[in-house]
Amino acid sequence: MVRRLSFNSKAIEFLRRLTEAFAPSGFEREAVKIVKEYMKPYSDEILTDKLGSIVFVKRGDYDRPHVLLAGHVDEVGFVISGIDENTGFLTFNPLGGWWDQVLLSQRVLIRTERGDLYGVIAAKPPHLLTDEERQKPIDRRNMYIDIGVSSAKEAAELGVKIGDPAVPWSPFMLINNGRVAMGKAFDDRIGTFVIMEATRRIKENEIRHPNTIYAAATVQEEVGARGAQTVAHVVDPDVCIVVEVDIAGDVPGIKPSEAPTRMGRGPSLCTYDSSMIPNQPFKEFVIKVAKETGIPLQLSQIARGGTDAGRIHISRAGCPSVVIGVPTRHIHSHVGLVNLEDVENTIRLVIELVKRLDRETVESFVAI
Question: Who contacts 135 (Cβ-Cβ below 8 Å, separation ≥6)?
Answer without folding.
Answer: none
